[in-house]
User: Which sequence fits this backbone?
């Protein structure tokens, strides 16, 4: 961008002021929540003294810890499966021509556009019908639980992973993959040594998005979870509807910090992978990389 | 993975049309096989559920409230046009439009500011937008519940200044604040992307042709950033219209929106056919809005 064309003077000042206001708007509520989570008082609004009391109570609260465990289990499986499936989907859509590709292309983006309430309703009806059918056919009695939550999270995460990975793939020069083939790499080697490292930032970004979506989801999970299988956000949501407590402040702060750590990892990873991608763009490095084993 | 048609060196000798066709077929098969797991998954856990909800919207309920898949009718859709449902629809649409407009007015200059900084400052400013964007939505909404509460800091501040205690929580205004706060990052990022990609030499050219700053903005910058405006508006409008967490936490009994109305049909009222019809009603409004935005976007281009 040409620096000389940037608006100067009064307009620039006003723009700067607006930016400050927006950042304050973004951060003030979050920071306030964090500060209040260290407040040693049963009443949320009245500040007495700083303490870790509510964090202590949080770790002793079995329901919070159980919900946290459920969240982590669901997030772990749904992230891994949706990252693999989403990456494969992105590769197929971006690099291959095959029958049914157009239809798949359309379906692949729908879960992103559809509101989560609708997605929740759809999956509730689906599991209800599917369980009824399985019960009639095989006499198996299934109940909603961690499995249905994971299946639901995978259903909406695949698309997000695919979009992120595909964006990365489309920026890539496919001649690098061809070069690998010219250097007698077989398909698998070309994929593992060239394509995968090059799309790694996309895959990592997609995986972190899937992880975040899974850890954050309230609506869909609420619909497909059973008794005793709530995740942390659903449990917190239920508590909040009954009222604001200092305990929720502490749990919320932990959830906030967790998502901020994820952003940090995501950004750091992107930097590192980009450097590696640049290195691979050099033909000699590519040759070395392929002939390494 | 653009796999080459020739992998073995000896086969490179003669490439006949048949060989090429066979290779193409093999490529197509490979592509299909790679996409197959996700394809099956999405059909099973997305397409089939969508079709099921559509079927349910025509179903009836028995005396106990259980949905029975017979006696197909349009009653649920007819009920969409009753006054109380239309009122909820209208309130949701008005709030979603307001949310979109407020976000647009605040975020356009904001994104413009970020896009016109130097590369280093730009990166830092963007990361500062990404952090709330990635932060837990429920927690961010909950923060406003604490802020706006009758014993919350804003209320205390107002009392300290000799004013009335705050009565904003559980009103439409509170829901609006929550929606703007929740979905604002969705507006910033596409606007920024559009402005950042822009060729600023065009603005310079307009200035050289004696356009004043405002004219250059209106005739060059704004049209060029229109894709960002359209994308941002859709990204804010659609989730606002279907929002459930925000009205559930910040709204009151009199501020029911589409999202929580649908949820209540499934989890409380157990009227699945009507809830299904409502879902399709919301999706229809979203579709109309999306078409509208693209039309407006195309006209200004």
Assistant:
């Amino acid at each position: 961008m040409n620096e000389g064309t940037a608006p100067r003077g009064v307009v620039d000042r006003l723009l700067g002021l607006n930016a400050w206001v927006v950042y304050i708007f973004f951060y003030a509520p979050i920071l306030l929540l964090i500060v209040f989570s260290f407040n040693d008082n049963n009443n949320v609004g009245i500040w007495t003294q700083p303490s870790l009391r509510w964090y202590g109570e949080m770790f002793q609260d079995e329901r919070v810890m159980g919900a946290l465990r459920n969240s982590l289990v669901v997030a772990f499986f749904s992230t891994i499966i949706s990252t693999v499936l989403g990456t494969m989907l992105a590769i197929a859509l971006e690099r291959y021509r095959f029958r049914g590709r157009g239809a798949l292309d359309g379906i692949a983006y729908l879960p992103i556009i559809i509101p989560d309430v609708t997605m929740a309703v759809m999956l509730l009806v689906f599991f209800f019908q599917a369980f009824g059918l399985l019960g009639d056919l095989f006499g198996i009695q299934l109940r909603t639980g961690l499995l249905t939550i994971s299946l639901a999270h995978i259903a909406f995460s695949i698309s997000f992973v695919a979009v992120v990975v595909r964006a990365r793939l489309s920026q890539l020069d496919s001649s690098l993959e061809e070069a690998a083939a010219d250097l007698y790499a077989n398909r698998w080697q070309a994929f593992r040594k060239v394509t995968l490292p090059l799309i790694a930032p996309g895959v990592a970004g997609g995986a972190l998005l899937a992880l975040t979506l899974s850890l954050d989801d309230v609506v869909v999970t609420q619909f497909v979870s059973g008794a005793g299988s709530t995740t942390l956000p659903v449990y917190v949501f239920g508590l909040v509807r009954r009222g604001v407590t200092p305990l929720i402040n502490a749990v919320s702060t932990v959830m906030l910090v967790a998502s901020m750590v994820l952003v940090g990892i995501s950004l750091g990873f992107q930097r590192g992978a980009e450097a590696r991608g640049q290195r691979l763009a050099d033909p000699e490095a590519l040759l070395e990389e392929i002939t390494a084993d | 993975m653009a796999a080459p048609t020739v992998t073995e060196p000896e086969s490179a000798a003669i490439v006949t049309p048949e060989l090429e066709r066979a290779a193409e077929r093999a490529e197509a098969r490979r592509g299909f096989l790679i996409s197959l797991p996700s394809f099956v998954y999405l059909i099973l856990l997305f397409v089939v559920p969508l079709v099921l909800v559509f079927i349910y919207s025509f179903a009836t309920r028995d005396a106990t409230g259980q949905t029975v898949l017979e006696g197909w009718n349009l009653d649920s859709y007819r009920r969409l046009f009753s006054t109380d449902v239309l009122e909820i629809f209208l309130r949701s649409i008005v709030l979603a439009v307001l949310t979109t407009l407020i976000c647009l007015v605040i975020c356009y200059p904001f994104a413009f500011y970020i896009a016109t900084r130097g590369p280093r400052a730009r990166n830092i400013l963007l990361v500062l937008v990404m952090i709330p964007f990635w932060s837990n939505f429920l927690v961010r909404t909950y923060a406003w519940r604490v802020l706006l509460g009758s014993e919350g800091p804003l209320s205390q501040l107002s009392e300290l200044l000799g004013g009335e205690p705050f009565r904003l929580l559980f009103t439409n205004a509170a829901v609006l604040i929550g929606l703007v706060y929740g979905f604002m990052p969705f507006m910033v990022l596409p606007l920024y992307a559009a402005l950042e990609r822009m060729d600023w030499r065009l603005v310079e050219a307009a200035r050289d042709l004696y356009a004043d700053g405002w004219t250059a903005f209106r005739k060059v910058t704004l049209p060029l950033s229109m894709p960002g405006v359209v994308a941002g508006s859709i990204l804010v409008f659609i989730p606002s219209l279907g929002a459930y967490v925000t009205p559930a936490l910040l709204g009151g009994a009199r501020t029911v929106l589409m999202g929580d109305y649908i949820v209540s049909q499934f989890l409380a009222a157990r009227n699945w056919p009507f809830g299904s019809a409502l879902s399709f009603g919301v999706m229809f409004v979203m579709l109309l809005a999306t078409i509208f935005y693209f039309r407006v976007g195309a006209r200004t281009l």
